[in-house]
């Protein structure tokens, strides 16, 4: 039997997409629809689960199974679903407020359990749906509706957090960098274990241009370094800058000034996340910000495999459950 | 007759008095092993064919300060030759290991009752810990009021186990087995079950096992030989129980078994998502043993994660259950609302404890009824069922799953600490003759017509279409949905319509549950209406009042939302309706508001179950106008 060849359009639901014109969410939706047909997974085997926020309307727009859940909790629904239905491909769609504020706890636990779901975190560094309050990723001093004198919260770095939780797949991409974004979604889908893709997403209504340094093509080359496994960290419009490790910190150097071997070679497969953590901590404007796969470690047992494996093992060692036998096991007595 | 204490079922040569039932409480420091002693006595009595009912009562602290009143741990059991419904009010016998245990429990011992005290535990240091000026055993009134036996249990235990060469600390720990032996002698119990238990539990530590056996036998022999004990008691097997094979069951265990059985009857695997909390945790401990039955348990990061994972599993087509206790249920509220609007079947169990907030975690109460009824944002009605006893937990779990799947909605089960930890004989059912629970997932096809995830059947239930089914792809969510399609809709008329439909769906359950049954006449003077774990006390109190010639009937609700169809008529058929509850009047409020019938509350929140006498007093205060209420519980009229 040959499977019907699906196209991006086959993944579009009959619902009108209602994000603000110009919102970065559109581009992520488009890339998702484009990538899914290549994965060879039938639509009915795919489930999108989201929390609450602008980005979390995403499942309504996909012609797959979907659940728009409650604020911050999408990873937990996904955990229950994937544990009981390991045959399904489960995507979690979340925002920076959704995943890191109200859902911070669940975000950590999904990653440390290594449940085999793909989390796509739309980071616009603002609360969109509730109209413009600062979020856990907003910069210090940012003026928003709820911070007229500037935010005094220290921003949270989703990638550092994910690495600290021993996430096995941690990546970052950008809404406007469509090819790269598609590639990251694909890699995430292929990873066995929790995958996190942070996507810089422009909210052109409440936080327009907050990440223009990375989003705009002209600025991107200077401010972003694209990670590739086994390749040195080189960036800049003329590929003239690099990153090297000196002692226990990273620094930017002119490629011309150093030997090629001096540059840091990216290793996404290294189980010790120390250097990956250093990469995650590179922040604009002091350093170029990394995009690509920071970490991709295979072979770590997933929660869903293990919970099912324990059931299987119990059946093999104890035999399939016999309820009547359970009822009568141990001390019983007869009443005539 | 000669006695041979070395047999597993030694017989006494002393006078044996046959009685219809005994209520005994064992009380000591929380490290003294009183719960173990109580459980053993219960199992042994159940195996002897008695009807049994238990009430364990322990401090909230794992290691409460030794010797203090706060650290007292008690276990009460009633065993009887007739059918009983409570662990008893007044004690026939009380065993105390130290002064704190004595002073905190003596009030419940009846006049002329037996008081056995471990006098080795009564010294200056212990008096101080118990905040006593002097030895409470020395008070004259004690000798006059009770039959007191002062037994140096610690010393006797040390002697009994001496040959096993244990350290003194370890040797002293055997004293609960000494106490057990003495209690077994006093009530003519066989040592069999406990000897087997010791073998199972300490088999790998032969010296400890041998010492415990020695202590047990020494306790028995002490009763037999000491002059002080002139007679022992015998409670015959209960003839009133329905015939069949029985075992002793605790409420939480029965709930867990009921869930596994419901999964089996519906051909489903069971997913149980939860976060530890007293007194619900034992359900998790129990279920996690049954992986070979296809049971998956998730210990989530919190109660919110637990309920949400449960919804995720339900969406995938699994039988999904979550449980908690009051504070955890509060956290689950938003998730339960989502489960309701997604119209997915699942069970939410609340093993209630004393509230509010952390309240009295190890004590019982029924004060989450209104939380479960209304504790969600928006119009979010859910069915509520409540087991009435430990054994009933088994049946109600199956019933909850049946309703959840027929109705496509979360069903709430309201247990409580008293039921959860209490135990009683459970008649083992024949699995083969239990009705199956039929579940139809719509089949996948290439549909010409678009699939309608919110189309409704005769019960107003929507189809349970599960991921993986081709052609049925659909999206659900917490935003209001258009009837039929399930698409997001802000249409005002549609919201009204969906709200009405969801409520009607729950209300219609009333047509598929049994009518409310009544113990006694269906009209007349006084009707006692109860729910949940107070069943036993209410039933026994009503029985007693009827035996005394009063015209009193009893209706016990297992279905609380919706209520059986005949409830309104029933309430109206009595002059007085009395509603005893371990809360300040929550069911009473529901009855009054829905049926416009005045109800009298008997309300108590002391972390303790009702005593039968309290209820008898409250009922008598209503049937005979001149009699006054002596009950400890406040009798409240009108909306209190
Ligand atoms: C329990 C709860 N608290 C608060 C809200 C309100 N709320 C909805 S979305 C949101 C923040 C969303 O921000 P983000 O996750 O960054 O998503 P975006 O809208 O920017 O995509 C908040 C606070 C809610 N829906 N539920
Ligand atoms: S508010 Fe911002 S994030 Fe939300 S849809 Fe509009 S542009 Fe997008």
UniProtKB/TrEMBL annotation, chain A:
It is an enzyme of class 1 (oxidoreductase). Its EC number is 1.2.-.-. Gene3D superfamilies: 3.40.50.970. GO terms for biological process: cellular respiration; small molecule metabolic process. InterPro entries: 2-oxoacid:Fd_oxidoreductase (IPR051457), THDP-binding (IPR029061), TPP_enzyme_TPP-bd (IPR011766). The keyword Oxidoreductase applies. It holds the Pfam family TPP_enzyme_C. Keywords: Oxidoreductase. Residues 52-199 form the Thiamine pyrophosphate enzyme TPP-binding domain. The keyword Transcription does not apply. GO terms for molecular function: oxidoreductase activity, acting on the aldehyde or oxo group of donors, iron-sulfur protein as acceptor; thiamine pyrophosphate binding. This is 2-oxoglutarate oxidoreductase subunit KorB. It comes from Novipirellula artificiosorum. The lineage of its organism: Bacteria, Pseudomonadati, Planctomycetota, Planctomycetia, Pirellulales.
From TrEMBL, chain B:
GO terms for molecular function: oxidoreductase activity, acting on the aldehyde or oxo group of donors. Residues 271-479 form the Pyruvate flavodoxin/ferredoxin oxidoreductase pyrimidine binding domain. GO terms for biological process: response to oxidative stress. Keywords: Oxidoreductase. SUPFAM superfamilies: Pyruvate-ferredoxin oxidoreductase, PFOR, domain III, Thiamin diphosphate-binding fold (THDP-binding), TK C-terminal domain-like. Residues 31-219 form the Pyruvate/ketoisovalerate oxidoreductase catalytic domain. Pfam families: PFOR_II (PF17147), POR (PF01558), POR_N (PF01855). Residues 525-589 form the Pyruvate:ferredoxin oxidoreductase core domain. InterPro entries: 2-oxoacid/accept_OxRdtase_asu, PFOR_II, Pyruvate:ferred/Flavod_OxRd, Pyrv/ketoisovalerate_OxRed_cat, Pyrv_Fd/Flavodoxin_OxRdtase_N, Pyrv_flavodox_OxRed_cen, THDP-binding, Transketo_C/PFOR_II. It comes from the Bacteria. This is 2-oxoglutarate oxidoreductase subunit KorA. It comes from Novipirellula artificiosorum. The lineage of its organism: Bacteria, Pseudomonadati, Planctomycetota, Planctomycetia, Pirellulales.
